[in-house]
Amino acid sequence: MRDLLPPSVAVAVATADDWAGELLAAEQAGLSEQAVQARRRDFTAGRVCARRAMAVLGLPPTAVPAAADRAPVWPAGVVGSITHTTGYCAAAAARSTDIRSVGMDAEQHREINEGVRRLVLLPEEEEACAQLPAGTSWPVVFFSAKETVYKVWYPIVGSWLDFHDARLEVDPDAGTFTARIAPARVDAADVVDPPATISGRFVVADGLARTAAVLLPR
Ligand SMILES: CC(C)(COP(=O)(O)OP(=O)(O)OC[C@H]1O[C@@H](n2cnc3c(N)ncnc32)[C@H](O)[C@@H]1OP(=O)(O)O)[C@@H](O)C(=O)NCCC(=O)NCCS
């Protein structure tokens, strides 16, 4: 993840101990009493990483509660993103003077079935995946990139994006992607200068597809 983001973004990747780390009081409410152990451990690792990333920025260990919509609530002046998947968790944080919004996502690198592909990919994206170099499950890369796009979009705009609301182009050699957001979503956004395109980077390694993107301040 570190290599996918600019130097002004601090990145922390969980170590084995982080899944059994401590939550701050304000973060406890983000977990229901009934949360299963796996969810508890993922949520905890994300918060431990978030605080470690903020420490890299020179910030004190501040809670990152979960909003009612599940989005993380970063301290004033900070933007960030959290991702977890089996065996992997990372958080990114940056000062909002440097970065307008940041998103990142990690997925297991595997084939995805036709039903999920149809949900995630536009027909032209499905065709593009078939033309991209063999050896990579491109639909997973597209899926992860679209989740990253949503994590960049949502903290700014506060509205939903369907998977078909972003049309993705991938450059396999450069390890980059660009998402064009459906004009109707951009026009409907109740915010100054909503992003019409979101560009980021991806890498497939160690059994994971990882994607990340930032928007710079206006
Ligand atoms: C929110 C979502 C993107 C999370 O992705 P995921 O692969 O399921 O899970 P990840 O582990 O990568 O990310 C989970 C983290 O995302 C963060 N998150 C949740 N909702 C969020 C939101 N609205 N905005 C930004 N970050 C959010 C949280 O920190 C969460 O971890 P936590 O609950 O432990 O705090 C996904 O569940 C979702 O709702 N996707 C549908 C919308 C979408 O992706 N549209 C595509 C548009 S092109």
UniProtKB/TrEMBL annotation:
- Positions of the 4'-phosphopantetheinyl transferase domain: 101-175
Gene Ontology BP, a term: enterobactin biosynthetic process
Keywords (alphabetical) are: Magnesium, Metal-binding, Transferase
Binding, Mg(2+): D105, A106, E107
Q: What is this protein called?
A: 4'-phosphopantetheinyl transferase superfamily protein
Entry's Gene Ontology cellular component terms: enterobactin synthetase complex; plasma membrane
Q: Which cofactor does it need?
A: Mg(2+)
Question: So where does CoA get bound?
Answer: R39, R47, T83, H84, D105, E147, K151, L161
Provide a Gene Ontology MF annotation, just one.
Answer: magnesium ion binding
Please report the organism this UniProt entry assigns to the protein: Micromonospora orduensis
Check the record and name the Gene3D superfamilies matching this protein. 4'-phosphopantetheinyl transferase domain
Q: Per its UniProt entry, which superkingdom is the organism in?
A: Bacteria
**Occurrences of domain 4'-phosphopantetheinyl transferase N-terminal (ranges):** 29-94
